[in-house]
Predict the structure.
Amino acid sequence: MNEKIIREKTVCFTGHRSEKLPKGDALEKLRQRLENEIEKALQDGYDTFLFGGAYGFDLMAAEEVIKKKVLIDLQNPKPIRLIAIIPFEEQAVRFSLADHERYYEIMPKCNEVITLNTRYNSQCYAQRNQYMVDRSNRIICCWNGQVVSGTAQTVRMAQKQNLEIINLYQ
C-alpha cells in the first residue's frame, strides 16, 4: 500500500501500558474522551492516525479509530486511515493472551502496517516514537507526567517540533 502520510492531516497516539492506565469507570471515561478527541480530529480535517502497536493506550486508540472507520456518514463520507508503526517484528510475542488477541484482531483492519526493524534493538522504541512524531501534526496521549517513559519521550519529541499535544490523562 505505502500511501504517503501527509503530516498536516495526521494524528499519532502515545500512552501508557495497561498497568498504568486507570481501571473501571475511570478507564471508560478515558475511552470516551479518546473517542471525542478522535471525532474532533476528524472534524478538524485529520484523516490519518498512527499508533505504535503497544498494549494499553495504543491498542485502545486503534480500536476507537476502527469504530470510526466502520461508522460512515453517508452525507459526508470521509476516508479514515489507520497505520500501525511497529518497532520490531515480534513486538507482540510477550503480550498477555488477551492483548495478543486484540493486537492480531486490529492489525488486519489497518490500512498499512509499517515495521521499522526485523529484531529488537535498544533504540527501536525511540525510532518508532520519532517516526510517528515526524509524520504528525497532532498527538493524542495519555501521559501521567512520569519523566522516564516511552510516552514521556514521545511527548518531548512532539514538544520540540511544536505539535499540538492533547493529554487525556486525569
Summary: The chain has a mean pLDDT of 93.
